[in-house]
Amino acid sequence: EKEALKVLKDAKSISKDGHQVELAGNIGTPNDVEGVLNNGGEGVGLYRTEFLYMNSDHFPTEDEQFEAYKTVLENMNGRKVVVRTLDIGGDKTLPYFTFPEEMNPFLGYRAIRLCLDRTDIFRTQLRALIRASVYGHLCIMFPMIATVKEFRDAKAIYNEEKANLIKEGVSVADNIEVGMMVEIPAAAVNADNFAKEADFFSIGTNDLIQYTMAADRMSEHVSYLYQPYNPSVLRLIKMTIDGAHKEGKWAGMCGEMAGEPYAAAILLGLGLDEFSMSATSILKARRMINSLNKKEMEAVAEKALSFATAEEVLDYIKKIVD
Ligand code: PEP
Ligand code: MG
Asked: Where along this sequence does the record place binding of phosphoenolpyruvate (predicted)?
């Protein structure tokens, strides 16, 4: 089986009827790039930069960050690299930063909310990213966006720092894309409006499921509610992809769901453009995508979205692909 998968390493990710998608890898540090390339990843769909901050005893400097981003971009050799700006808070804290005491940290001061408040931290990261942009194909994405105003505010700070660097004589790539994670239901429902301003979406199903079902993703006690195949979740995913495509933008997914073979059939049918997952899932996902017919999966996805429960969706999809 390992050998059979190996031949797919340099293959395209393309359905039987010729619809091509991108299969990318999720990384936490520059060292993880090797695993993505060895497993046939066509890009990095999520670089979780919080590890740069968590594995340090101080806020990483602009130069420290620049080196990390440059390394990833260079090693990916012109392939797309989606870097997520700092997503700290919730369950992820820093030893050198005091978070406010909150009843519900997952609903509180975290990610883009923190960055728009502490713009000094945010600006340092954006400058490092923009400086690194000349070493590859950089896509920057903001986590936990709930409102269009948050996206605009974050984008405005990005534009300011980009202009500052250009004024300082620093060279900056002209192909940087600036997008956002869709991991809050409010963003999914309003996706058509967001798509007018964002260059791309990446659906974060780990959080999108948690917030849609109001079920803590870390709690065993409510884990029965953690349902990727719940029709409510699938409908939000469809709204996100349709919203992007209406404005000519691309939609990816970087939550765990993107690497699930059963989900792949539905997501292909819904028109997802990029699937980003753990490196070790990429070849199996490619085998699945390459065995499917996109046109058929469009009908399958439509039917899947008509069911009332996650169990019905999963029973149906298993019968189709197994
Ligand atoms: C997600 O929420 O789906 C996601 C990819 O981000 P994280 O798991 O880091 O919250
Ligand atoms: Mg998330």
From this structure: 48, 84, 206-207, 217
